[in-house]
Write a structure and sequence with these properties.
This protein has helices spanning 13-19, 24-34, 39-52, 57-74, 78-94, 98-114, 118-134, 138-151, 157-172, 176-200, 203-226, 230-239. It is 79% helix and 0% strand.
Length: 240
């Protein structure tokens, strides 16, 4: 089996169509013929599966089956195995199997821990928070989202989104004052990023931050309304 890197050679639409038969033996044979039976290909297939877990679960499951076989053949690939487990978790979540999704995310975290992949672990807590919240396990979900916030880069948009997730979780528990503090922290990050994008002439980044701030203002207004602060709620919406 070839170990030549496939990272710089994206799998073509034609090859993906030939792979997407539901038959892993056929798919593996195609990859062997193309000289792409490698860890890099397994990573690409895992990325495809992650992106298509909700929109095309059948294909996503097939990509993951191929990736898992490649990873097993290669051996000693904990980072790759973690990526596969995380993508499998997304697939199980889309299918409503929350228990399996949680177990797979924790498996991915354990594997990432062995290779010191702190950024991946931090991001994975976002998914774990969602799963725990859906099960009504709010205390555990809060622990998970705090772990995400602590592990994500300070003042970054991903950390701001994690703070919004925490705020939404707090609002589920009618802790609206605490939620507003998290929304404010996220707002400060997005505002800073907006200024950077505007200064750089980054039209796409500017639009992205403006959209994020507008959505955030709606959340802030809802929390303020629950606290019987309608004037501030209106001001938040007008500012957006």
């Amino acid at each position: 089996m070839s170990n030549a890197p496939a990272r710089d050679t994206p799998l073509s639409p034609d090859l993906l169509a030939r792979l997407d038969t539901g038959d892993t033996a056929v798919g593996l044979a195609e990859l062997e013929r193309a000289g792409l039976a490698s860890a890099a290909t397994a990573e690409q297939l895992t990325g495809l599966a992650l992106a298509q877990a909700e929109s095309n679960p059948a294909s996503a499951a097939h990509w993951l089956a191929l990736a898992e076989i490649l990873a097993l053949r290669l051996g000693g690939q904990p980072a790759l195995q973690a990526q596969i487990a995380y993508a499998q978790a997304r697939l199980r979540l889309s299918a409503g199997d929350l228990g399996a999704a949680e177990a797979l995310i924790r498996q991915a975290q354990s594997l990432w821990q062995t290779v010191g992949a702190a950024p991946q672990i931090a991001r994975s807590y976002l998914g774990l928070t969602q799963i725990l919240t859906m099960q009504g396990r709010y205390a555990e979900a809060e622990e998970a989202i705090h772990a995400a916030i602590a592990g994500l880069p300070a003042g970054s948009p991903p950390q701001a989104q994690a703070r919004i997730n925490l705020a939404n979780l707090l609002r589920r528990q009618e802790r609206h004052s605490e939620a507003l503090l998290e929304y404010s922290a996220a707002q400060a990050t997005y505002t800073a990023q907006l200024k950077i994008s505007q200064a750089d002439g980054d039209v796409s980044g500017t639009a992205q931050m403006q959209g994020a701030l507008a959505r955030l203002a709606v959340n802030q207004a809802n929390a303020l309304m629950y606290l019987d602060r309608p004037d501030e709620a209106e001001a938040a919406l007008l500012e957006a």
